[in-house]
Amino acid sequence: MRLLESLKIEPDTRVILRTDYNVSVVNGKVQDDFRIKSSLQTIEYLLERKAKIIIMSHMGRPKGRDRSLSLKPIAEHLGILLDKKVLFFGDVESALSGIEDMRPGDVAMLENLRFFPGEEASDKKFAHELSKLGDVYVDDAFAVAHRKHTSVFLLPRLLPPAAGFLIQKEVSVLDDILLVRKPPVVFILGGAKVETKVKIFVKLLHKLDAVCVGGLLANSILAAKGIAVGKSRYEDIEQYVEEFDITDKRLHLPLDVIVSKDPSGRSPVRTAAIGDVKNDEIILDAGPDTVKLFSKVIEDAGTVVWNGPLGAFEVKKFGKATRDLAKELKNTGARVIVGGGDLVRAIHEAGAEKSIYYQSTGGGAMLEYLAEGTLPALEVLQ
To answer: Do the annotations mark residue 21 as ligand-binding?
Structure first.
């Protein structure tokens, strides 16, 4: 992997910097700037060399242009962190015009890449349009390194590419986990994005000492095995069912769950044993017995890798299992690696942040790297 330090950066060099600023913004205010701050080392390195920096990122999953997912508030927040104005371009055309007026050491940001149809379509024409904005390309967007999207998979083929300091750090820490194995190794998989996680789950189950499963992946496994999940969200994973045994001693599924008829939290909730979920009920969190089970599993672990909350964390009462399990991290001497914004917030709320060995900016990317040892966007940085 080619490193940022190997690129020749001179005053006036136009640097396309791909970051991942997919963060929560409410009423125009950034709620959590962990990912933004994680890119500052790379930005400051480029500023020291008086480069012209053109930052590209995405946010959310917009269907066309959506004002609520504009990167303008991100640009303003970054400007505060850097103590300098960050220019903002609403499209590639205005960026091509505006970059001519940029001075050495100026920073600009392009509007949300996913506003453009070509970004997620791996569009060569869009890649060529973007390439006109830079002389070199630096990738610091680890959280989307598992995607074959235009800005991370095609664009770096058109310019001299390199990995920024954040990607270098992510890869170094994850390589250490792979090479310096500290058993027992336990994975906790929660959250959504079942399609990504089930593939990784199947690959990793046979390599690990234990896997604790919550969230939509747990719902999907239970449903695939014919266990009632009521009206709960789940995905069809039938094609993977033959690849794992639900009775495998390394696999730990929920023993009980918190259910309700209303995901907003306004209706009554109850604790139900697995298999006792009624047809009109929705699984919204793991239950207390599940937390006890998972706590026991991680108690003697040497390494814990946790991605995604155990329940519908956005509603406070359905984040209880995640927060309770996070508190148990304080009782383990394991190296704890976490990924996923909601999960990190839960760990901070539980006062267990000092238990974290490393906080990854990526969730799915982190898991896929641990399963495969590489990622598509990293391959093109060679």
So the answer is: yes
* CATH topology assigned to domain 181-371: Rossmann fold (3.40.50)
Residue 217 marked in a binding site: no
Residue 1 among known ligand-binding residues: no
In angstroms, the Cα distances linking 84 to 23, 44, 46, 89 are 21, 12, 14, 16
Tell me the two tokens of residue 374: 């590489």
The domain locations on the chain are 4-166, 181-371
311 annotated binding-site participant = no
Instruction: Give the CATH fold of the 4-166 domain.
Output: Rossmann fold (3.40.50)
User: Annotation-wise, does 197 bind a ligand?
Assistant: yes
Do 4-166 and 181-371 come out as alike in CATH topology?
Answer: yes
Beta strands per DSSP E along the chain: 14-18, 25-26, 29-30, 52-56, 86-89, 107-110, 136-139, 161-163, 185-189, 210-213, 251-252, 256-260, 269-273, 282-286, 303-307, 335-339, 358-360
Interval 58-72 mean pLDDT: 93
Mean of pLDDT over the chain: 93
Torsion of CA 284, 310, 20, 71, to 10 degrees: 30
20 is in an annotated binding site: yes
Q: Would the annotation count 114 as a binding residue?
A: yes
Q: Is 22 annotated as a binding residue?
A: yes
**61 among annotated binding-site residues:** yes
Interval 290-334: pLDDT, tens? 999 999 999 989 999 999 999 998 888 999 999 999 999 888 889
Q: pLDDT tens for residues 201-228?
A: 888 888 889 999 999 999 999 999 899 9
Report whether 112 belongs to an annotated binding site.
no
Of 263, 302, 307, 252, the closest CA to residue 285 belongs to: 263
Q: Which residue has the tokens 């379509």?
A: 121
Predicted TM-score of the model (pTM): 0.89
44 in a labelled binding site:
no
pLDDT band at 341 (very low <50, low <70, confident <90, very high): low
pLDDT of residue 132: 98
Q: Is 243 annotated as a binding residue?
A: no
